[in-house]
Fold this sequence. Notes:
Chain A is built from 18 helices and 22 strands. By secondary structure, chain A is α+β, with helices and mostly antiparallel strands. Chain A has four domains: 2-44 and 149-232 and 338-380, FAD/NAD(P)-binding domain (3-Layer(bba) Sandwich); 86-143 and 234-319, D-Amino Acid Oxidase, Chain A, domain 2; 399-542, no CATH class; 553-579, no CATH class. In chain A, the strands form four sheets. In chain A, strands 5, 6, 7, 13, 14, 15, 16, 17 and 18 form a nine-stranded mixed sheet that branches. In chain A, strands 1, 2, 9, 10, 11, 12, 19 and 20 form an eight-stranded mixed sheet that branches. Chain B is α/β, with parallel strands linked by helices. Helix content of chain B is 27%, strand content 21%. Chain B contains ten helices and 19 strands. In chain B, strand 15 and strand 16 form a beta hairpin. In chain B, helix 1 (14-25) runs parallel beside helix 10 (405-422), helix 3 (81-95) packs across helix 10 (405-422) and helix 6 (206-218) crosses helix 7. Chain B starts with a strand and ends with a helix. Chains A and B meet through helix 7, helix 15, helix 16, helix 17 and helix 18 of A and strand 5, helix 4, strand 17 and helix 9 of B. The complex binds flavin-adenine dinucleotide (FAD) (2 copies). One flavin-adenine dinucleotide binds at residues 12-18, 35-38, 42-45, 48-51, 53, 171-172, 215-219, 223, 238, 240, 274-275, 318-321, 360-363 of chain A.
Amino acid sequence: MVMASKTTVLVIGGGSTGCGIVRDLAMRGIDATLVERGNLTHGTTGRMHGLLHSGGRYAVSDQASARECIEENRVLREIAGHCVEMTGGYFVKRPEDDEAYFQEKLEGCHACDIPADVVSRKELRTDEPYLARDVEKAIRVPDGAIDPFRLCVANAADAEANGARIETHAPVTDVLVEGDRVVGVEVEHDSGPGKRVHRTPGTTEEIRAEYVVNATGAWAGRIGDMAGVDVEVRPSKGVMTIMNVRQVDSVINRCRPKGDADIIVPHETTAILGTTDEEVSDPDDYPEERWEVDLMIDTLSELVPILQEARTIRSFWGVRPLYEPPGTGTTDPTDITRDFFLLDHQERDDLEGFTSIVGGKFTTYRMMAETITDHVCEQLGVSEPCRTAEVALPGSEDLGSLDDHMDSFGLRSPIARRSGQRLGSRAAAVLSGSDPNPVVCDCEAVTRAEVRDAIDGSGSDLNAVRIRTRASMGNCQGGFCCHRLAHELSPRYEEDVVREAWDELVEERWKGERHALWGEQLSQAALNDALWATTMNMDTDPARTGVDVDFAAFDAGEYGFESEGSSGVAADGGTRGDQ
Amino acid sequence: MAISDDVLVIGGGLAGMTAAIAAARGGARVRLLSHKASTLRNASGLIDVLGTDPGGHGPLADPFDGLDALPQEHPYSVLGEQAIREGLALFDDLLGDRYLGAHTDRNALVPTHGGTVKPTARYPAATAPGLASFGTETLLVGFESVTDFDAPLAAAHLETAGVPFEVRGVTLPFPGEFRADARVTRMAHALDEDREVRADGPATGTRATLADRVADHLDGAERVGFPALLGDEHGEEVREELADRLGAEVFEVPMGPPSLPGLRLEDALEAALHEEGVRVESGNPVVGYEGDDRVETVTVERVHREVPYGAEQVILATGGLVGKGIRSSRSGVREPIFGCHVPQPEDRYDWFSDGVFDDQPYARFGLRIDEGCRPLDDREGVEFENLRAVGAVCGGYDSAREKSASGVSLATATVAGRRAAECL
Ligand SMILES: Cc1cc2nc3c(=O)[nH]c(=O)nc-3n(C[C@H](O)[C@H](O)[C@H](O)COP(=O)(O)OP(=O)(O)OC[C@H]3O[C@@H](n4cnc5c(N)ncnc54)[C@H](O)[C@@H]3O)c2cc1C
Ligand SMILES: Cc1cc2nc3c(=O)[nH]c(=O)nc-3n(C[C@H](O)[C@H](O)[C@H](O)COP(=O)(O)OP(=O)(O)OC[C@H]3O[C@@H](n4cnc5c(N)ncnc54)[C@H](O)[C@@H]3O)c2cc1C
């Protein structure tokens, strides 16, 4: 069955860029639709480091980017307060690191308006006691941590509130071109349309649009191919390794020109080590290797020695959507600019109604979205101004009064505090939605109300619930809560839907945990295995394997508990086996 | 002078406790040293022997039918069928009528809190009326704040699994005032004490109130299953009263941590240890040993000093990756106290498979043993002439996929305990 629909602007890609664009369009009164092949943040946005850049990292090499970063850093603190933790950051110098570069970094920060001051070893180690004893000094900058999931969901939710349509699990399979104009796309709904519900039959939909924006990041070349134009993205992978506790409370950067494994970002209860930079040919299929994880631990323990012995809970990889204009010919991906590019295919390729946006950073997503939206508005003759820098995202309005609300939900205070941080100004509305409101995920202190609110927003997809709530993302990696999360889908969804969503979550959790399988985390994996396979028998569950069980062949109990005929199966495995 | 005993057991899980009892029954003076609580509070309390055929999809109706297909390094292959029977006999004797299943070799199918059935060899009396192998209309009851069990969903799941009876589920509020995230142990104690609750009318006991709430949903069901929280110390009494009031059989569905059936089993075994005169010391880890071909003493780490404990025979029952009897780092897997050989792939990326429920090499990590349960070195010689290994510290088997955890613990424990006593 092919459905057909119309929209004014169609945005492809539900990463930070696409979500930012669709919100901006909707706020300017334009009828917009966003289609994403997986969950929101399925691409690079859900697999990045979560650093809200101060700009310090680019203060020497790329000052234009550095300026944009500090500007947007300030904006996001205002409009997305519930997604940001202003941890502060340091550029730390070890004895072997170059003093001249340290000075250059400091001057660069000042030149770009990034507040920066030098901190002595003593002060530094008071703030961050786990730093190596021989670090010399550091430059303090306003780096922060930002939750990409929450941010994208908030952008999408606000876009919907302003009339936009958001379709996840809806990959674009073709770009419709008529003459020299792009007139829409064809998407393949996994299930639905609408929110994802497992086992709902899929459909194909033709969405016609006056304008199409390709915001598919590392995958932009593929969408380009569908439209018959070249978009030369150079995907480059990077690893991130998650520690089970925060060894540091501020962002720790190594103060040297460039290099792998030079940053630690504290995130919620964890600290994340990163990263590498290696060009790959296919953004969907690249090796995830042991040396990359080892490199994170071994190199970053030069800054924070206890990392050597610490517990990691998983590792994951993301691919940067790096772009350079044709003919630049940079060989080392770390030298490719982090700037973003707006490729108007009419100017470039004589193809109307179609623009791609590539490159850039998460931190500057809003600014990128504004640039694109301005461009689209110009094409459409819309003169409405951008307001995304002033209007707070849902969850970030009026954060001041938040604490007052939290006591009223009968939640123990650390749980209430965590919920409040995640939900921001929505906390009161969400937490009053369930009575009783037990904790579903202990590691991350996520309650039933929060889980159900996420299900309202994302259908039966537990990975979407996970990224909205952080449930199953802590130490136990879902060992104690995957089934509880599945239970929350019932009775709204049927058993087969629940089971499929549950299995998908379990596999997803395992995928990242595989890269942390030694020490405590291997013990955790063995415990999870016992809970899932031994206690629950998920692995040889007849409902899952489809094996027909001869129930009558099994022990029916010592008392010969009589079946009083209700379904008539008499079965006493009985004494036949006894000798 | 070092403290000295005939047999020293290191580790207080299922394997260590039964090995200590087996040795004591063989006439030995036994001391058991345990660092932390056993893993039983996490365990379902079921006693699995072998639930799936190797490589098959199970469930296996008769565990003894599956033995021939096990690999030769499997503890069952090394020790033989008789060891399993001996282990089960000891268990049956220790637990008496608190556990059932001894009347047959067959596995029973027990409903799990994940909504399916699982094959097991011995099950608590509280679970017995719930066996899935016969057709009796069943009502499952869950509680609003107990997130580990969703009764309507479990019922639907059991039907998909093909159980030969009708099963429905209902979710009810648990009687009384509890914090939203109260542990199941609190509810169990409320039932134990039959605490008064005030609903609408006059105050009644927790049990009567619960029965009242369930009765409305009974609708012809002949048995009613609850998550395993029906009392702790007075479980039997609680079940009987509920059954009386409901006019239906009442059973428990085994649950995850904190698992009351596991804790009850632990209590029962601790009482048995006491009865057999085993001296138990817990709270301090064993960190090393003295000796060469024989273990002369093991070293216990106390707050400010290390204390040697001597023994003729030593039984290592420190558990596997979960119990920390087997440890690992990025560079390898080891047995930390005696440094016994642990076969393992060199590259840690060969320790796991890509699908979570695929065969997992890490699940087989542990010591190889000879027919007297003595750990073997990398050339198949015994590591120490007087050291034996039991339970999850042994390797070469995959307790989760096979459903064989407690069976291996019991078989190894009885053989090691008996042999240790014989060698005195
Ligand atoms: C290792 C690493 C660490 C990083 N750390 C940081 C950091 O700390 N701070 C920072 O500011 N930036 C960081 N970045 C950069 C930042 O993550 C990216 O620039 C940003 O997330 C890109 O967002 P995007 O929306 O453009 O792309 P994406 O998030 O990749 O979004 C594109 C979306 O398009 C979808 N898509 C693809 N094909 C189709 C199709 N056919 N139909 C429908 N949808 C489709 C994808 O599923 C994807 O969700 C990091 C990047 C990497 C790789
Ligand atoms: C989640 C879970 C579910 C389970 N479900 C089932 C089931 O359904 N059916 C079934 O048959 N079995 C089940 N089991 C398995 C069973 O409960 C036992 O774990 C298993 O038989 C292994 O027991 P063990 O005594 O060898 O090890 P453990 O129970 O791990 O005991 C090891 C003991 O050694 C101690 N120890 C470790 N190192 C030291 C040291 N250095 N010094 C002193 N003491 C030390 C530990 O503190 C602990 O007390 C389950 C286990 C788990 C974890």
